[in-house]
């Protein structure tokens, strides 16, 4: 029986992060934790903040506009994902989980003035050679009309859950870890970009906001939020996209801050492929595809 | 409605000076005013109400929102002369000439002046977005506490000024880095680039020594001649320079075969052919037609500086001409490799068919007709001033040629511009 939790305001991300980390430590000591994903839908109906929306559009490279990018709806639904994943009955802790793919579909243009009914729930867990993939399924409705749907897949390393499905799902993201594509455009990511993005997105994870935070998770410096890179790619292609589209992204390698990366994209019919690559090396950071 | 013909009466510019040198204390308005005054002196325009003066600058202060009108008011032209600012990066001067010639051809004005000025020495510096937003919020605040609260948002990092962008906003690459990609893609060699640069210096030096620029240039602030021209440069000297753009084998672009930073201003005087007869003005060349094109360089895989290769075939087709039908070619030397890649592209069967959608390649041209009196590599390239320099130079050259095979001598100007744009125009001797 699905449990419905209706929130009246967006949960604050920082306290959730802290309590989840604390819970993770306790569980590591006690060795006890829930065995499966709770069957729960978290829901929130809210107005969008035009100031924050404009700041988001500017920071990610979109033109400031009445119509919002698909990734902005993800940003607004993100606290609901966090609410689910940081709940006491969540079988894993937030620290150390890795966002591996993201898929979203914008079903029609959405205006910043529209009230959104956002929801988030778990999809069935999926097998992964290094652990388990947890899908967070988000939806945005305007009144009864579904306008946006997104699936974020997170990898929990070294864990298994009962009832896992095979990794490749009909609805999943089928993207290689790299594509043959020239990438000449240079994006320079300043050292404080993680903090700037944290301010507009609410994603205050210290791994993104300070070099110290980055080091705590084994990186030499802070890394940019993958959703910024995702949004930056969408911003580069958005003027050429139809009103409704699906965008799939695979995060292949974190981007350290500050750094320069390269971007390239190719259109075949109505199908776009994009890549963000290292500034000087050959490796990809992100692979994206956009289809009608 | 009667037919109107737009002709180039003449031109005037100040010598182009190396940045942070002789013109470092002069602003764009100052230089444009000097160029207008020289033109007015040459054609008796003091106190004359010109139909319209059109010009611009690439690096522009916000206070110069009416740059051209301010220059008119500071010049000897009748203050009733209207002016308009226009900007299309390095094609500004040529686009301004196209604008004026179109008004003449429509009968809206009898005469007009087109040009531009640019100073790298007096470049605008902007405050950071953080400081700017805080100052704007403070000035909009109604109470002192609100004003202080707005100012309190300023962070130390916000106090660092923002120099003008030197990169294409959408690709993060400088013009040189873009050209380096094109240079590599087209396999333009170092030797060919240096040879073109050498020819530019030798041709410009010869033109100066022959007095070609005597009625096209007015000295300014003690400068009497373009400072970029090096009559004594050699292929050996050019070959010794270290590459500044490109990587590995593609690193062939040096300070010798790329344009540097210059200050300067140039204007061209255009008029209706009948009007020149009435006022006993010279007529050097007729503005036949023009075309502007743009390329999809951000993610379309096209070359930023090769937009003229799109404009040229469209212009040729409309005028029933072939690429070989010109007696003079003026292709702006942003980089030597830009000129060479442009010529290579138009001679490339695959490029012309697949990129340009043509039936085949436009073919090769006679290189002895190219930039015969030098171009930007030697003269220097104060961005918005370059179009005025080239239009006046070509018009005078065509007038000197007069007729070729019983028809008026014909020339083409091609200028590439930031933002993946390019402007081209056809002139014919009067």
Question: What would your notes on this structure say?
Answer:
- The complex is a heterodimer of chains A (292) and B (430).
- Chain A is of the alpha+beta class and 292 residues long.
- Chain A folds into 2 domains: 1-173, Thiol Ester Dehydrase, Chain A, CATH 3.10.129.10; 175-292, Roll (Thiol Ester Dehydrase, Chain A).
- Chain A has helices at residues 13-30, 50-60, 70-85, 193-201, 206-209, 211-216, 226-237; strands at residues 3-7, 40-46, 98-106, 116-122, 126-128, 131-142, 145-157, 185-189, 245-251, 259-268, 271-278, 284-291.
- In chain A, 39% of the residues are buried.
- The model of chain A has no long low-confidence stretch (mean pLDDT 91).
- By secondary structure, chain B is of the alpha+beta class.
- Chain B has helices spanning 28-43, 67-73, 92-105, 129-140, 144-152, 175-186, 190-209, 235-239, 273-278, 308-318, 336-346, 349-355, 376-379, 386-401; strands spanning 6-13, 17-18, 52-56, 83-85, 111-118, 243-245, 253-254, 262-272, 285-294, 328-331, 403-404, 407-408, 410-417, 421-429.
- The longest helix of chain B has 20 residues, at 190-209.
- The radius of gyration of chain B is 22 Å and the shape is globular.
- At the A-B interface, strand 8 and strand 10 of A face loops of B.
The CATH architecture designation of the domain at 175-212 and 288-429 in chain B is: 3-Layer(aba) Sandwich
Q: Helical residue percent of chain B?
A: 25-40%
**CATH homology superfamily name of the largest domain in chain A:** Hotdog Thioesterase
Quaternary state, please?
heterodimer
- CATH architecture classification name of the largest domain in chain A: Roll
Give the largest interface: A-B, 14 and 10 residues
- What sequence of helices (H) and strands (E) makes up the elements of chain A? EHEHHEEEEEEHHHHEEEE
- Structural class category of chain A: alpha+beta
Largest sheet of chain A: 12 strands, mixed
**Low-confidence runs of chain A (pLDDT<50, min 5 residues)?**
none
Q: Categorize the overall geometry of chain B.
A: globular
Structural class of chain B: alpha+beta
Radius of gyration of chain A: 18 Å
Q: What is the overall shape of chain A? A: globular
Number of E-type strands of chain B:
14
Q: What is the CATH topology descriptor of the largest domain in chain A? A: Thiol Ester Dehydrase, Chain A
